[in-house]
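Hi all, long-time lurker, first post. I run a small reading group and we've been trying to get comfortable going from sequence to structure in the token notation. Rather than ask abstract questions, I figured I'd post a concrete chain and ask someone more experienced to write out its structure so we can walk through it together at our next meeting. Sequence below, copied exactly:
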Amino acid sequence: MNSLFDSIRKIGFRRGPDRILGGIAGGLAEVTGINVWIMRLIVLASFLLPVLGIGAYLVAWILAPWQDNSIPLQQAFGGRSIQ
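-- Answer (accepted) --
Happy to help. Here is the structure in token form:
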């Protein structure tokens, strides 16, 4: 399972340092070059979709690495390999 986390890190997406809640909108803004406040509005608008918006945000929040490359799901398992 560590290969999954390593492949997530190779994507290059990181939670943005300019964050309010989870940093997902900040990271998306950094990757796409869109203003962070516009991206936050887009993310908030996606929450209007019943399951997709909030569900996608939660998955991204669990799997997106912080600026130091640590991943919350991997930390929940103590950083060890998951079988």
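A couple of things your group might point at:
Residues 28 and 39 are 7 Å apart (CA to CA).
The radius of gyration is 13 Å.
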